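Field: sequence (string)
Field: structure_tokens (string)

Example rows 1 and 2, in order.
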Amino acid sequence: MHTEPITRHSRALPELRFSLSLLYVGRFLLGMQTPAPALDDGLDAIDERIEELTDELVATELLHEAAVLAGDVDAQPPLN
């Protein structure tokens, strides 16, 4: 049973969390390779994207919580 209130931001949260998880896995796998100068640039780019996506996820979670507190929730859960 779904107990979390549904807001207009609810659909974005699982996608953002999944994307962030994939980036972390990719970062981990690339970090296991032998170090190379070109690889460091790629890891830096992934680290920057992880930071950007983390910021976006936190902002979306805050918007979701604000919508819940303001009572801006959907009466019916969306159909998947």
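Row 2 begins here:
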Amino acid sequence: MARSHVFHLLPLFLLVLVMTFSVAESYGHAKLRPKDCGGRCSYRCSATSHRKPCMFFCLKCCSKCLCVPPGTYGNKQTCPCYNNWKTKEGGPKCP
């Protein structure tokens, strides 16, 4: 009896797993191609009043790390390279 429940839940588990990977890829957790950086950085910097410097540093970080965190603020833990790149003073280099 317990085995039949496992076989019924297996397709659901696989569906959730596939959806998780596709969502992670669409939000920048996966490696980007350099040509994808413009669109991702444009969205990342869309909520700031300092758009020009934000775009400059975001594009620089994206070209090095091939990753841009999802959203317009925070979520840097999803891109370790982007998150850990610091200025000489120790502040965050990437927006």
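free_text_note (row 2): The chain is about 55% helix and 0% strand.
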